[in-house]
């Protein structure tokens, strides 16, 4: 009886601690999101009958298709690239090198540098009259209009990598340092080859890799910031991202289409995250 | 032979890693160097940017002809607008960082250290929301701001920021590391939950709070998406959006403006780098 009383008291107290966060979270996220999902299936803003028209319109819209294709393509290029690069850097950093902490600081620094404050540098580098074209001209190459051609997406990939690589390096380094030394010592005793030892590293780094992939995907949605600041409201077609589309919808106050787009995106991300988590679980059970 | 290799390899690896570091730092260094040039030097080096009627290339220079603080003077004293926008940024970021930290610390204590029915499913909801990008969360935020009449006011950005799920998630990670025996011992001594929260949990998650403050500051100091949608008035915009305009209108002073914008973030990072890194390692997930 007394135990029950204590448990009830704990529930009450937990509720008190939770209530400020829960109330705000419900008001600004959960309830309006639920509402926007409902709106996305209705044909008028104030109720109306159920319909899939908003989704049909959305999927038929050429700018939505362009935005989602660009966002997806950006992800497909930048995520593998950043994962491979940061893994390479972390592996190197984890060997015997000088100034390890200084180097790590240098890699992490771009994370805290506001994008807006170095946009100018990207312009100086990638403008039609920019430094990169200047160097290429000196080598006798033809200049490229980096920001106003299909190359623009490559420039954005570069900025994304610049910004986020430190984050992944820190995660990979932590993962590497969690692998017990004994594994390598045993491998040494057995006279294992270098390749075999890398196999050990790779296997035990798998959970970290899942995390890094997940984070890189989530961060890749944020690349609009960089894109907007470098290329403005009307970027080249190849870097017209999901957020550009959403901004236009916000400007025309098309709440129904916005709701449909947000719901669709939330569903895609849920699927993606579930796949990643399932893959990780599968890998874990395979390990055991 | 092997001995020699052991000595040379670390050096080579360091050189390679240092080259990457230099490439990553280059934009920051270039901005700082350029902020020390006079407007005339800036215009003569970069005046051809964005122009099609000339085939000259920019002149990338690493050392100013003449070190001058005239850009800083122009930005800070001659154009009050800049300081005004700087203040806009401060007045949006500080309430979000302080508010989210306070609200999240309480909720994280409940999620990490108290038992109640529905704890796991509720936390899962926070987790999912945290992973949603702006493209998803801005729509509900907009609907609510519209209903509460907050559009075109900084509150439309501050309130969703205060209640965002990231802080709850990060601080819970730190709360989970507090040994249960500490709580039991305090309970034995007759301490109530509020006492335990204030005098045991909060002091023990100080590194977590430091990490949260730096991560939140880095994220919101840099915000672009929310002000573009929620703030129509140009005077309400934070510095992040204003800078991109300044760069077009007053090119000659924008390097100094950029540097001033970077400074608070860099200072915070230098004082709390340890916590920042720890926060990344423990979170794995950024807002």
TrEMBL record, chain A:
It is a multi-pass membrane protein. It is found in: Cell membrane. It holds the Pfam family BPD_transp_1. The keyword DNA-binding does not apply. SUPFAM superfamilies: MetI-like. Keywords: Cell membrane, Membrane, Transmembrane, Transmembrane helix, Transport. It comes from the Bacteria. InterPro entries: ABC_transporter_permease, MetI-like, MetI-like_sf. The chain crosses the membrane at residues 12-31, 72-93, 105-126, 151-176, 197-218, 258-277. Residues 68-277 form the ABC transmembrane type-1 domain. PANTHER family: ABC TRANSPORTER PERMEASE PROTEIN (PTHR30193), INNER MEMBRANE ABC TRANSPORTER PERMEASE PROTEIN YCJO (PTHR30193:SF37). Belongs to the binding-protein-dependent transport system permease family. This is Carbohydrate ABC transporter permease. It comes from Paenibacillus mendelii.
């Amino acid at each position: 009886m007394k135990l029950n009383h204590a448990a009830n008291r704990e529930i009450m107290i937990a509720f008190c601690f939770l209530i400020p966060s829960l109330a705000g979270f419900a008001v600004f996220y959960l309830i309006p999101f639920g509402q926007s999902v409902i709106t996305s299936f209705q044909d008028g803003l104030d109720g109306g009958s159920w319909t899939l028209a908003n989704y049909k319109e959305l999927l038929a819209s050429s700018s939505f298709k362009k935005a989602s294709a660009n966002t997806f393509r950006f992800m497909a290029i930048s995520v593998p690239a950043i994962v491979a690069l940061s893994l390479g850097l972390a592996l190197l950093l984890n060997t015997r090198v000088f100034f390890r902490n200084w180097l790590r600081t240098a890699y992490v620094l771009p994370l805290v540098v506001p994008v807006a404050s170095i946009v100018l540098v990207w312009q100086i580098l990638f403008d039609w009259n920019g430094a990169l074209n200047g160097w290429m001209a000196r080598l006798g190459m033809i200049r490229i209009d980096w920001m106003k051609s299909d190359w623009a997406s490559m420039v954005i990939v570069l900025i994304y990598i610049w910004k986020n690589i430190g984050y992944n390096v820190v995660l990979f380094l932590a993962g590497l340092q969690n692998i017990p030394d004994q594994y390598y010592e045993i491998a040494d005793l057995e006279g294992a080859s270098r390749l075999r030892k890398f196999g050990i590293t790779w296997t035990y780094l798998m959970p970290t890799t899942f995390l890094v992939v997940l984070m890189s995907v989530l961060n890749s949605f944020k690349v609009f910031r960089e894109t907007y600041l470098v290329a403005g409201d009307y970027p080249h077609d190849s870097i017209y991202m999901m957020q550009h589309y959403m901004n236009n919808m916000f400007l025309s106050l098309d709440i129904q289409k916005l709701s449909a787009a947000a719901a669709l995106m939330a569903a895609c991300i849920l699927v993606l995250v579930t796949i990643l988590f399932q893959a990780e679980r599968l890998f874990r059970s395979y390990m055991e | 032979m092997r001995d020699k290799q052991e000595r040379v390899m670390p050096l080579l690896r360091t050189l390679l890693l240092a080259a990457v570091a230099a490439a990553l730092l280059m934009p920051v260094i270039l901005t700082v160097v350029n902020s020390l040039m006079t407007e005339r030097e800036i215009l003569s080096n970069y005046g051809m940017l964005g122009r099609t009627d000339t085939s000259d290339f920019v002149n990338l220079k690493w050392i100013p002809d003449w070190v001058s603080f005239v850009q800083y003077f122009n930005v800070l004293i001659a154009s009050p607008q800049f300081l005004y926008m700087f203040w806009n940024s401060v007045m949006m970021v500080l309430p979000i960082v302080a508010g989210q930290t306070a609200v999240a610390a309480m909720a994280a204590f409940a999620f990490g250290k108290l038992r109640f029915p529905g704890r796991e499913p509720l936390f899962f909801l926070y987790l999912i929301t945290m992973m949603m990008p702006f493209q998803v969360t801005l729509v509900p935020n907009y609907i609510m701001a519209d209903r509460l009449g907050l559009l075109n006011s900084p509150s439309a950005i501050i309130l969703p920021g205060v209640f965002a799920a990231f802080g709850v998630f990060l601080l819970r990670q730190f709360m989970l590391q507090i040994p249960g025996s500490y709580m039991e011992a305090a309970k034995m001594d007759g301490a109530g939950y509020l006492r335990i929260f204030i005098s045991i949990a909060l002091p023990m998650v100080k590194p977590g709070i430091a990490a949260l403050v730096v991560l939140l500051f880095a994220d919101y100091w840099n915000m672009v998406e929310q002000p573009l949608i929620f703030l129509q008035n140009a005077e309400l915009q934070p510095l992040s959006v204003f800078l991109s305009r300044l760069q077009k209108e007053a090119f000659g002073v924008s390097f100094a403006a950029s540097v001033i914008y970077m400074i608070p973030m860099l200072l915070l990072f230098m004082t709390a780098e340890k916590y920042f890194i720890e926060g990344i390692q423990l979170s794995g997930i950024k807002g």
